[in-house]
Amino acid sequence: MAKRLEIDPDRNLILVEVGGTLAADEVLALRERICADPLYRSGMNQIWDFSRVDDVEVAPADLRAMIEQRTRGAFEQHVRCALVAPQDVAFGLGRMYEGLSNEPNLEIGVFRDRPSALEWLDSTEPQ
Questions:
Q1: pTM of full prediction above 0.85
Q2: Which end of the chain is more exposed for a tag (fewer CB within 10 A), N or C?
Q3: With bands split at pLDDT 50, 70 and 90, how would you rate the model's confidence at 70?
Q4: For the chain, which residues make up each domain, given as ranges?
């Protein structure tokens, strides 16, 4: 899984770009890396861009593990997380993740393109 990680405290934004094969264990490891980064702070919005993913190795049980990991790092402030997934399989998994997530301070949006995701992140309206 190729990836790019950018943490921008000035924009209050974490940008993650993923490509190649999307594997659950690598997503979990990447989340740990984000939380350990000195630029990371609680309350940062996130955009995970899966536009370059060409294969998905994530099962429903993996989605639950991702949600459990995120719940352990409970959000003290309202956070938005935008998932960009133009491919049908990745989009469907994103929607499942959104539906299974029940963190009260986390709002998840799933989008087919990055401009729509960024517009949503910058808006103040709930999804």
A1: yes
A2: C
A3: low
A4: 2-122
